[in-house]
């Protein structure tokens, strides 16, 4: 249930209607409050300030009618401009970036401001009465409400000026890349070390993992586990780790996750397996199934790969023959390098998770540095290797990652990625461009082969930064 609520909250934050709706309701409440104050003669102080006083009912009615008509027109124009910007951005940078623009808080507040001002004016104007208009009732002009309406117009003008600046700045490619990169770094910072129970040493596999979940399990061993199957088709958007650990501890079972956030499942897919199988009853299966939030698209809630894929998609499009924009690809490589360099300094969680008593409860998907490097640089290698500018920046980004890396195994991953990219560039480039990229790759490989690789890389910072 928590997983579904979290997904619902994320859906609301990415919707284009939620914030304007809240602001519209707030405008209705504000209008009612202002009319109530006016009707209880709380505006006597305004009589001493003639420039605040609405002269006659006709003038107040005309003013609010003008405000309401202009605001609904501006709101329609704002919506049209926003949709045009979204269509342009999704076409240029990729359809998966559409949610980034739909969730933009500035656009939502802008539309909400204009709609709220329109509704406020509409509610207030209907309360204005001229003398003799209603038999037995005196004339009524809500002076304070009219004043607040004028203030809302001034705020709307300020928001309109902000919106005119905001839209082009938001669809600027460097701003798009920066927002994705910032979120990727923030997710890495908050997620590692991740906690789904207490991590165990992976070297304890033979001692802790029961035979039913071992790679050499027989058919008889495999029969000692039961699966929890999905009831929906879509992408796993969120996994409630707490609920899974709670069920595993209460039932005294070991659970093995078959999917992770970002994976696609279909109805009938086995989400996770449990051993012993008799520990799973209908109530436990329902709780475990509810721990998986499945939706129509991938999100960044628990999926670092999604953010990496967004940067890779922008870079791949930029390096396509139809676009041929290596500088945009270089910006993506810079942010990918920064993210992987940050990740290289962190301890990644074990796939074995224990409860507070140290008993193995969950076997999760392994999270490896090599997997993230391949997801980022491996996916872009075929594109960057065919362009000299992107190729040099590709090598420089790998060098930046190496500067934050101490583990020999992770340095080996970077050496392998560099060698693979060198081979691709050797076949894709010709002439001086080929020689320049291969030379940079060779310098990086020599530095990574030395024990003091960080000093050598810092000494070679000139070629790493370069002008690529």
TrEMBL record:
<keyword id="KW-1133">Transmembrane helix</keyword>
<feature type="transmembrane region" description="Helical">
    <location>
        <begin position="109"/>
        <end position="128"/>
    </location>
</feature>
<dbReference type="InterPro" id="IPR018723">
    <property type="entry name" value="DUF2254_membrane"/>
</dbReference>
<feature type="transmembrane region" description="Helical">
    <location>
        <begin position="140"/>
        <end position="164"/>
    </location>
</feature>
<feature type="transmembrane region" description="Helical">
    <location>
        <begin position="67"/>
        <end position="88"/>
    </location>
</feature>
<keyword id="KW-0812">Transmembrane</keyword>
<keyword id="KW-0472">Membrane</keyword>
<feature type="transmembrane region" description="Helical">
    <location>
        <begin position="16"/>
        <end position="37"/>
    </location>
</feature>
<dbReference type="Pfam" id="PF10011">
    <property type="entry name" value="DUF2254"/>
</dbReference>
<protein>
    <submittedName>
        <fullName>DUF2254 domain-containing protein</fullName>
    </submittedName>
</protein>
């Amino acid at each position: 249930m928590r997983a579904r609520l979290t997904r619902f909250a994320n859906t609301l934050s990415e919707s284009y209607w939620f914030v304007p709706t809240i602001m519209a309701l707030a405008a209705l409440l504000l209008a009612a409050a202002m009319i109530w104050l006016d009707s209880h003669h709380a505006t006597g102080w305004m009589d001493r300030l003639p420039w605040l006083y609405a002269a006659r009912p006709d003038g107040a009615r005309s003013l609010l009618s003008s405000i309401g008509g202009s605001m609904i027109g501006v709101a329609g124009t704002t919506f049209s401009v926003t949709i045009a910007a979204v269509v342009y951005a999704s076409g240029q940078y990729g359809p998966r970036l559409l949610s980034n623009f739909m969730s933009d808080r500035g656009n939502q507040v802008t539309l909400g401001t204009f709609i709220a001002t329109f509704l406020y004016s509409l509610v207030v104007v209907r309360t204005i009465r001229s003398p003799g208009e209603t038999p037995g009732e005196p004339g009524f002009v809500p002076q304070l409400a009219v004043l607040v309406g004028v203030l809302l117009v001034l705020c709307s003008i300020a928001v309109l000026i902000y919106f005119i600046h905001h839209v082009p700045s938001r669809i600027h490619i460097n701003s798009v890349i920066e927002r994705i990169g910032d979120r990727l770094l923030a997710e890495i910072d908050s997620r590692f070390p991740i906690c789904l129970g207490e991590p165990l040493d992976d070297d304890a596999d033979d001692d802790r993992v029961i035979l039913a979940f071992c790679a050499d399990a027989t058919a008889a061993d495999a029969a000692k586990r039961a699966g929890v199957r999905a009831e929906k088709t879509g992408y796993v958007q969120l996994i409630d780790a707490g609920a899974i650990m709670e069920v595993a501890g209460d039932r005294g079972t070991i659970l093995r996750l078959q999917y992770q956030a970002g994976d696609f499942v279909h109805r009938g897919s086995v989400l996770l397996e449990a051993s012993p199988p008799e520990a799973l009853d209908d109530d436990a299966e329902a709780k475990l199934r509810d721990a998986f939030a499945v939706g129509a698209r991938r999100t960044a809630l628990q999926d670092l790969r999604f953010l990496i894929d967004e940067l890779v998609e922008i870079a791949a499009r930029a390096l396509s023959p139809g676009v041929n924009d290596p500088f945009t690809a270089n910006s993506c490589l810079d942010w990918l390098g920064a993210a992987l360099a940050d990740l290289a300094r962190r301890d990644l969680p074990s796939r074995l998770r224990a409860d507070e008593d140290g008993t193995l409860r969950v076997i999760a998907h392994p999270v490896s540095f090599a997997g993230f490097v391949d997801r980022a640089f491996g996916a872009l290698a075929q594109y960057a290797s065919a362009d000299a500018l992107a190729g040099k920046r590709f090598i420089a980004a790998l060098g930046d990652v190496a500067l934050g890396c101490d583990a020999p195994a992770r340095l080996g991953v970077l050496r392998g990625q560099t060698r693979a990219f060198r081979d691709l560039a050797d076949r894709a480039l010709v002439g001086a461009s080929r020689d320049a990229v291969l030379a940079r790759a060779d310098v990086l490989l020599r530095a990574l082969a030395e024990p003091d690789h960080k000093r050598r890389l810092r000494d070679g910072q000139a070629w790493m930064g370069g002008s690529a």
